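Re-run with default settings, no changes from the original entry. Doing this only to confirm the output is reproducible before filing.
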Amino acid sequence: MSEIIATLSALVTKRKLVPFLGAGCSASMLPSGEHLTCIMRAALGGVTASHHAEIAQLYVETFGREAFCQFLKEKLTIETFDDEKGFIHLTMMQLGVPVIYTTNQDNVMEKGFEKHGIPYKTIIDLRDFEETTGDEQLYIKFHGDLNDPGSIVFTTEDYESRIKEREHAMTARLREDLLAKNLLFVGYSFRDMNMQQLFMEVREAFFGELPTSYMIAYEYTKALQSLCDDFGILLIDPMVEMPQSENHHIAFADLLKRILEMSKKK
């Protein structure tokens, strides 16, 4: 058995593993971030800005915050959860871990919880933490939820505001989990400026002595390896762990399946 599968499944049974889902997890059911950026750029008549946050900022300044949030809601909302397309979300649900994070604003995970009858609590601010009962799956939406436009972090202004607000409830909770548990990034590129800032601050404050964070690469690249090395994240290449797989797509799915199977056995 793969050593990394044994390690991650053991962390699940100890309730120490904290999945952190990125946009890649929802890519099979929703438009990609690149596609959303292209639509916004076209609506703006073609702009020179390239980063999605800069283009989103221009969109808000041109059409207003309400129109921007409505645009996101139309593009990032599903009616029904597809188990096959949502196998990453389904795997994370079935792990039975107490907390799952995401920077996604979509409703894919919530639809999955509802379809499979799993009690959950979406967390977007301090008030939500206060209202938890202790028996729900906590789904922490680090960059907000489409049903609460004020919570959304998407534009350059949003990111700058969140970075300055060092004691924001989301940041405080993630800092706590970074110190006590092991994060597992899935479908994540780690280019998010908020996450990079938080990792740097916590690593510097504790001299790099943090529990290991992991990332499962959907497709391993040297660039991703370099980025993970910069932030002390252990990057997992599914093709290395599942060498019998035909390609990286299958290896990724097989690795998640094996982690889930071994966690259940343990």
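The chain has a mean pLDDT of 91. The CA atoms of residues 159 and 193 lie 7 Å apart.
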